[in-house]
Write a structure and sequence with these properties.
By secondary structure, this protein is of the alpha+beta class. Helices cover about 15% and strands about 45% of the residues. A hairpin with a 2-residue loop joins strand 1 and strand 2.
Length: about 130
């Protein structure tokens, strides 16, 4: 979604501040749902990708088990937006993450997610 190698990606820039992950992006017309507004699915992808950086910061490999999003305002096309994600809690393999997406001071969406940590040696083993 955010990688520059993907010609259809959103072109987002990821960064960290401490244990928080951020992604900034200006979505183009290709991601428009309603006129002048980004499709909610691309906002969900932005959130999931930003949460993925949180996992990296904690040196964890995990998959998304549940992602709950509350859309609070339309997501503008052609204007910068920023997602901020962090780990709210951990209980064994269960990782609870949260995220807020903003355009300037306007909160566009909030999200909570449950990720399940996996053993990298098992997950990354190629199956034949």
């Amino acid at each position: 979604v955010s990688g520059h190698a993907n010609p259809m990606g959103i072109g987002g820039e990821l960064w960290r501040q401490g244990d928080r992950a951020f992604m900034g992006v200006t979505l183009g017309k290709a991601f428009e749902g309603a006129p002048g507004r980004a499709h909610g699915g691309v906002v969900a992808a932005l959130i999931d990708e930003t949460m993925g950086l949180v996992l990296f910061l904690h040196e964890l490999l995990a998959f998304t088990a549940q992602l709950d999003i509350t859309y609070k305002a339309p997501t503008p096309v052609g204007e910068p937006i920023v997602a901020e994600a962090w780990m709210a809690s951990r209980d064994g393999r269960k990782l609870r993450l949260e995220c807020t997406v903003r355009a300037d001071e306007t909160v566009i969406a909030t999200a909570t997610a449950l990720f399940i940590a996996v053993d990298p040696s098992i997950f990354l083993t190629a199956r034949q």
